[in-house]
Amino acid sequence: MKTLGRVNGIISNIVIAKVDGAVAQNEICYVYCGETRMMAEVIKVMGDEAYVQVYDSTRGLKIGDKVEFEGHMLEATLAPGLLSRNYDGLQNDLEKMDGLFINRGSITDPIDFDATWEFKPLAQVGDKVSAGAWLGEVKEQWVMHKIMVPFIMQGNYTVKSIVAAGTYKVTDTIAVVTDSDNNEYNITMVQKWPVKQAIRCYTEKPRPSRVMETGVRAIDTFNPLAEGGTGFIPGPFGAGKTVLQHAISKQADADVIIIVACGERANEVVEIFAEFPELVDPRTGHKLMERTIIICNTSNMPVAAREASVYTGMTIGEYYRSMGLKVLVMADSTSRWAQALREMSNRLEELPGQDAFPMDLSAIISNFYSRAGLVKLNNGETGSVTFLGTVSPAGGNLKEPVTESTKKAARCFYALSQGRADSKRYPAIDPLDSYSKYLEYPEIREYLDEHIEKNWVDAVYEGKTIVQRGKEANDQINILGDDGVPVEYHERFWKSELLDSVILQQDAFDDIDANCPIERQQLMYNMVLDICRKSFDLVDFEECARFFKELIYLFRQMNYSEWKSERFEEFRTKIEALVNDKLAK
Amino acid sequence: MTTRAFQKVYTKIDNITKATITLRATGVGNDELATVGGRLAQVVKIMGDKVTLQVFAGTEGLATDSEVVFHGEPPVLRVSDALAGRFFNAYGEPLEGGEQIEGEPRQIGGPTVNPFRRLQPSELIATGIAGIDLNNTIVSGQKIPFFADPDQPYNVVMADVALRAKADKIILGGMGLTNDDFLYFKQTFENAGALDRIVSFVNTTDNPPVERLLVPDMALTAAEYFAVDKGEKVLVLLTDMTLYADALAIVSNRMDQIPSKDSMPGSLYSDLAKIYEKAVQLPNGGSITIIAVTTLSGGDITHAIPDNTGYITEGQLFLRNDTDTSKVIVDPFRSLSRLKQLVIGKKTREDHPQVMNACVRLYADAANAKTKLENGFDLSDYDKRALDFARDYSEKLLSIDVNIEIEQMLDTAWSLFAKYFERGEVSIKQELAEKYWKA
Which secondary-structure segment (H or E) carries A73? Predict the structure, then answer.
């Protein structure tokens, strides 16, 4: 028997329902407004009154309208066929909805339940299995999608039977397992999981030890993101958060990419819809869309579903991680999610914390970030969820609660600076404020020694020092004037400009420069460092500026040229000649 | 407003605040309209049989025994082609005693377009203003506000942009518009012979501020009619969104909500997004483009209203007085059109992106030189040339009184480069410099 309720109060999208039975916190229910059935979630219970947040507009709802409680929390449907789909925050397939507008109460299936898959068994009769164990696999796009023992099945089981290789529907039973009491459980290819809980079917969560390549020099070279790591990008509007996220989603070295557009602009999602089916992943040669899942709850879609969207994205990410895959989950922007929490907390008349955000904001954020990570699965394989979120700090002020809470949770900090954006130095990642804690990890140091070159991390720190010293020199020049300082100050400043222009700045809209593979980053960075280590024979600051501007110009042309093409080598030769010409004797 | 037969009339109001009333009533729907003592009101909260209504015109002089009649539906606008050429108030009633419009009633603030059904905006909207077309190109389906101090001529610029934009319909949503500005819009549109393309919903400073809350939804419902039903290109002008947000703050304050930053309601972002996100490029060829005005106080963009707006809109156009040329310019540093990448160099000449960036870079060098000068340092030869370039650039391209074609803007930029700089200093892709450099 389902618990029923009647609407007894309406404050915007919060509905108070008088209930006739048991309700659980975070339980899902449906609110009926005439024929329309709207999904809602219990967020507070007071006596026989349940406060539910409705994932839709409550326009026209009346006192006494029916509420039906479902007896479970918000769940994601996990099965083959998730890749390349476009979902709303509640995992409704947007493509399947009729009409131009999203009408209230539109509910569509997250997968195609009639589709068939070529199943190949991996387990054998008699195998001991537990939640998350691989029973078989199907080929989804080019990913080997593992069919697992559902995550909610606690304890140990034995495979009693498993179907032979062949074509099956997701709802067909593909295996039967028994528990210690010989109870039988039918297993299909589809399972459900409550999105707000982490999937923990793994033996351990080791420290990240590999770098996730993004093709963005300011990240890969200067502040690398680890596979299974976490990072966030705060920045005022117009600083290029979204362009940077899109670049990473196109280029990142991941098997599956989940983009959560959370409370942001619809046109940005449209851009992904338009571009991804056309673009090819340079690593695999497959279309980008084939490895991508988009969860889209744009700013004009229901506020309550914004919170759900990030959890839905993370849950799907954890699901693919359990198959031993490298997953990248990106959310733009987590501030909108925090604002949704604020709106709810406000309507519930909770005592506010700083800037009217709920008191537990910090805990919610760190709990969420902790779901990312590299894991060792029960069968010894590894899988990872790397999480990258953007934060939109109010007024560009990094001291606001969402940025501060996230800073405590995330390991990489890519601060986008208004000053850099104003002078069109994109990506506007501030080289001095930003950091990657992973550079301090011995595991990562070892990885870089091996995969790029010996002592790479030291070279990175050397680059950071050059930028720092350049800034100091520039401050001096601004205080004392061009003539008031020795030429060495100018040289120091211009060396940092060289590094900034060639390595840190990157043209996301140029076909070649947009994506810079590690090998190319290594060559360019070494060339720049090499110049920075030399001293030059420059008479005065004007000659110094001229010399470095010429160098920057030539390096830029190199960045725009095809890797190791004739043009590329031509500019490289010109640079070498110019450098040798001015070298201090 | 027509009242229907057998409607229940309530005559006992329990609570009255400056903007809201509460009474006991049953069978009332959320968001429903009602007439309270002859004034329009909307249901904002229901707790059991206690219904709270927001009275748009304010509650001054309302008595506890005023008649309350519920209309049984949320606010609607009657839509038909007859909207064109007419002026309405915030409730969608014709101004100046005109006749009611016949047409299909549509609830305002309707559902969201499925993002999957949207098309990527790709049509350039030329305005003739180089500060916009060259540096911050606007695209159909975009939403972009002017950020301007109250003393700047934003309404004039907006009217110019609207008339040059070649839209099928222009919908003006005026919130807290002074009567003078309202008449200016009216006259400008009339003089341009464009009145039949224009629909206006106007709340002037004479009207109660809370009424403003209806204006954007009214304007956008009309816009959706023309764009969705008729496949037309619609341009919506919203001025001034700061006054709209102020009205939101008033209501939320009266409802005892906890204010967040700058006394604004915590839902400000969602409230503004609901409006701006109506901008759309539709598959049927129709589009809604929104150009709005957000007035600033003392150029402060960190205030909650411009700040939230900036995160929602696809860029912003920043007006500022250039003291060197004493002209109002579109500030190249702080302005941005996020959708420009979709058209520049694609719908416009190939050199557009690089020329645009080079100009801004050189203008930034000039700004640095100016700082040096102000601090009493000698200028290098390059600095001097950069300053001269900046003056010319500001006058010939950034100023809002420029009205030329985009190719002309690009040619002007190339000739300025050649006049003041060497090729290496401008740092543009070699192929382009070879082709366009004005020797």
Answer: strand A66-73
Is the separation of the CB atoms in A427 and A240 below 8 Å?
A: yes
* Cβ neighbours around A383 below 10 Å, total: 23
DSSP type of residue B394 = I
Cβ pair B427:A270 closer than 8 A: no
What is the C-alpha separation between A557 and A502, in angstroms, rounded? Answer: 10
Share of chain A above pLDDT 90, in %: 82
Query: Where is mean pLDDT largest: A157-171, A420-434, A468-482, B419-433?
Result: A157-171
- Of B146, B120, B122, which Cα lies nearest the Cα of B132? B146
Q: Which residues contact B45 (CB under 8 A, 6 or more apart)?
A: A10, A11, A12, B51, B52, B255
pLDDT, residue B1, reads 44
* Cis status of the peptide bond prior to B121, with omega within 30 of 0: no
Name the residue type at position B310. G
- Token pair listed for A523: 């060559």
Using the beta-carbon criterion (under 8 Å), do B380 and A545 form an inter-chain contact?
A: yes
| Token pair recorded at residue A488 | 């060495």
Q: How far is CA A200 from CA A197, A314, A339, A569, B37, in A?
A: 9, 13, 28, 51, 61
Q: Which of B33, B24, B28 is nearest to B77 (CA)?
A: B33
Give contacts of B116 with chain A, Cβ < 8 Å. Answer: 86, 94-95, 97, 273
- Mean per-residue pLDDT over chain A, rounded: 94
B26-70 confidence digits (pLDDT tens): 999 999 999 999 999 999 999 999 999 999 988 999 999 999 999
Specify the 3-state DSSP secondary structure of A218: helix
Pairing relationship of beta strands A143-148 and B112-113 according to DSSP bridges = unpaired
| B351, amino acid identity | D
pLDDT at B5: 52
Residue A535 has pLDDT above 60, yes or no: yes
In this complex, the residue of A94, A343, A541 whose CB is nearest that of residue B270 is A343
Instruction: Please check whether residue A76 is in contact with residue A193, taking contact to mean a CB–CB distance below 8 angstroms.
Output: yes
Write out chain A residues lying below 8 Å of B371, CB-based: 478
Q: Which residue of B has its CA nearest to A34?
A: B29
Per-residue pLDDT tens digits for A211-247: 999 999 999 999 999 999 999 999 888 888 888 998 9
pLDDT digits (tens, 9 = 90+) for B275-324: 999 999 999 999 999 999 999 988 888 899 999 999 899 999 999 999 88
CB A305 within 8 A of CB A55: yes
Instruction: Judge contact between A533 and A562, C-beta under 8 A.
Output: no
The predicted-structure confidence for A131-166, as pLDDT tens digits, reads as follows 999 999 999 998 999 999 999 999 999 999 999 999
pTM for the whole thing?
A: 0.92
Nearest to A29 by CA among A82, A60, A65, A62: A65
CA distance A230 to A314: 13
Work out the angle at residue A209's Cα, subtended by the Cα atoms of residues A205 and A213, and round it to the nearest 5 degrees: 120
Which string of b and e fits B189-216 if b means at least 16 CB within 10 Å?
beeeeebebbbbbbbbeebbbbbbbbbb
Report the relative pairing of strands A134-140 and A156-162 from DSSP bridges: unpaired
pLDDT(B126) > 60 = yes
List Cβ neighbours of A187 (8 Å cut-off, separation of 6 or more). A135, A147, A149, A150, A173, A174, A175, A176, A177
Tell me which DSSP letter residue A429 carries.
B
Instruction: Give dist(CA B13, CA B53) in Å, integer.
Output: 11
What are the angstrom distances between the C-alpha of A88 and each of A306, A311, B83? 9, 12, 35
Tokens of A444: 């990562």
- List the structure tokens of B89: 């108030």
What's the pLDDT at A432?
92
Pick the range with the lowest mean pLDDT from A123-132, A340-349, B232-241. A340-349
- The amino acid at B238: L
- Residue B381 to residue A542, Cβ atoms within 8 A: yes
